[in-house]
């Protein structure tokens, strides 16, 4: 069974967008996790220079549209994590499946890299895609419940390749802050339930 998640990536205050992209993509492409870098593929960018190519597209976007946000509010890329049940898929097939997921989800309008990590019991992909489109005229719209679209594509691709799918997925869990407040006994939701 394959599980997928979507995480927006922001540049942090005091760091350049290029530095943040380099750190994130270097983590994704880590040779110790990707069989010496053999399990990294890219679309419309070279995995070696993807961070620079992503950063240049953002500069073109700003120059073309005149739009600019504060670094901590601007989404510079998105990370899709695609995890597979141990022993169900080869690293090479996982990489190909991640590429298909990214291509279908982005519609081929965004640069991306797919890095297949084999350093854990379960094989998983880090799919990092540029928030800016290839034509540099707009950015990805992370609409409400985007993860459900990813899940549908992911489930269909897994079925097509003979992999199991979670038929009755659990609802989204508690946010960390809510869970932590419940443990401390300061959760307003728990107080409301008790009342």
Written account of the structure:
This protein is α+β, with helices and mostly antiparallel strands. Helices cover about 40% and strands about 20% of the residues. It has helices at about 15-30, 50-65, 90-105, 145-160, 175-185, 190-195, and strands at about 1-10, 40-45, 75-85, 110-115, 125-130. It has a 5-stranded antiparallel β-sheet with strand order 1-3-5-4-2, with helices on both faces. Strand 4 (about 110-115) and strand 5 form a beta hairpin. Helix 1 runs antiparallel to helix 2 (about 50-65) and helix 3 (about 90-105) crosses helix 4. The longest helix has 16 residues, at about 50-65. It starts with a strand and ends with a helix. The model has no long low-confidence stretch (mean pLDDT about 90).
Question: Which percent range fits the helix content?
Answer: 25-40%
Q: What's the gyration radius in Å?
A: 18 Å
Q: pLDDT under 50 segments (min length 5)?
A: none
**Biggest sheet layout:** 5 strands, antiparallel
Average pLDDT level: 89
């Amino acid at each position: 069974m394959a599980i997928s998640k979507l995480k927006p990536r922001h540049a942090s205050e005091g760091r350049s967008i290029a530095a943040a992209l380099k750190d994130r993509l270097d983590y994704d492409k880590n040779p110790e996790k990707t069989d010496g870098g053999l399990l990294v593929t890219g679309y419309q960018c070279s995995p070696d220079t993807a961070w620079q190519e992503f950063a240049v597209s953002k500069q073109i976007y700003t120059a073309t549209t005149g739009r600019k946000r504060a670094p901590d509010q601007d989404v510079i890329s998105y990370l899709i994590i695609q995890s597979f049940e141990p022993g169900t898929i080869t690293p090479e097939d996982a990489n190909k499946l991640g590429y298909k997921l990214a291509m279908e989800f982005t519609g081929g309008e965004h640069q991306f890299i797919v890095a297949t990590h084999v350093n854990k019991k379960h094989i998983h992909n880090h799919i990092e895609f540029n928030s800016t489109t290839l034509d540099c005229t707009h950015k990805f719209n992370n609409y409400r419940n985007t993860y459900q679209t990813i899940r549908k594509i992911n489930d269909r691709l897994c079925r097509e390749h003979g992999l199991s799918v979670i038929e009755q997925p659990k609802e989204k869990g508690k946010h960390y802050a809510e869970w932590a407040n419940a443990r401390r006994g300061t959760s307003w939701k728990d107080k409301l339930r008790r009342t």
